[in-house]
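To close the section, here is one more complete example, presented without commentary so you can practise reading it yourself. The ligand is pyridoxal-5'-phosphate.
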Amino acid sequence: MSVNPERLKKDFPIFSNNPDLIYLDNAATTQKPSSVIRAVSDYYATINSNVHRGVYKISEEATEMYEGSRKKVSEFIGAREPAEIVFLRNTTEAINLLSYTLGRKLKKGDEVLLTEMEHHSNLVPWYFLREAGIVIKFAKMKADFTLDYEDFQDKLNTRTVIASFTEVSNVLGTINDVRELSNMCRENSTISIVDAAQSVPHMSVDVRAIGCDFLAFSGHKMLAPAGIGVLYGRKDLLDRMHPFLGGGEMIGEVDYNGATYADVPWKFEAGTQNVEGAVGLSAAIDYLKSIGMDSVREHERSMIDHIFKIMDTIGDLRQFGPMDSGKRGGVFSFNIGDVKPFDLLNQSNTKFAISHSIHPHDLAAFLDRNNIAVRSGHHCAMPLMGRMGVSSTARVSPYIYNDERELDLFFDALSNCRKEMAR
Ligand code: PLP
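Output:
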């Protein structure tokens, strides 16, 4: 089934409330369909209560709903069982959990392998481990904005305990072959972690097919409410891990001498949970499944192909990402003007070599006056910006409710912006 953005748009109240809005910042967060909003509101209106605690009816129903959402997530990403799904706030919290719990076992000189195209969420939690003498390494990006797999392989060695990498770059759109990377990790007895914040919302993801040990994503980037995220982990690994946060509901027994912990996944879910978020995530998965993840992916690919077709009409537009829509997700980062050529492979390129004749923030502000929402800035990927020789870019990230007409309007506005700024 192909995606019909015009029809889907009607499912999203934000567009009837803002009829002129062209929302192209879906890599940051997505809009919410009525079915998700209704699921959350119905939950509050009918069975709102705390889960796993009450023996009364609505609490039992809420618990059932919460655990039902876990089962749905587990099936959606091909986990072996719901116990492999931990509900957290977002991708950021999931990676922090991993850096904290796995980091406890690392010794001075052990290595963590990342890539040059990571979001700060998959950098900073690992940087914390440097205080304990852990060495952080980065697999290189190639000049065509794809990952250098040979370099990744070369950097895996007997000291590499953990490797954590994004499936889709939120700046470049580059799709990394996480199956291959996980494979390399397994052969090296290295724990593999996939940052799937930009993949699970946009394409079919199957954790068993990938063969990774952990994978993280955020509900708000896939039509669900903010504040609900997922950490998938292989059950045998989760079982052996220390909890992250301590508190209510994550325990077995507590006395004045200490505590034992609950089974997974509850061992990692301390305190009152975001039940309404999980309910909303379940409704969001139903919505995405009704479209089909392959159709979502195809639609985004066609959006990028359309951008490729028109982008040359804007002189001195420089885009950052692979020029093959088969190798990239629905993310298009670019700058306009005065672009000095630079050598991506030159490792000394860590400072900003390009000056923009139109700064991305000015561009985004101009587009906003035309009701077009795009992102500008470093996209929480400052090291990658440095590698690309820029301080910031503008970014367009379409989703299921965007169509070619909106992209055409975006490019018209871009062209007007150039004319106006050149005056
Ligand atoms: N990883 C990637 C690739 C992202 O794009 C983002 C958010 O943009 C994150 C991690 C962090 O997601 P969150 O802010 O939902 O934790």
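Once you have examined the tokens, check your reading against these statements. The domain at 5-24+292-421 is CATH 3.90.1150.10 (Aspartate Aminotransferase, domain 1). The pocket of pyridoxal-5'-phosphate is lined by residues 27, 90-92, 119, 121-122, 166, 170, 195, 197-198, 218 (CB under 6 Å).
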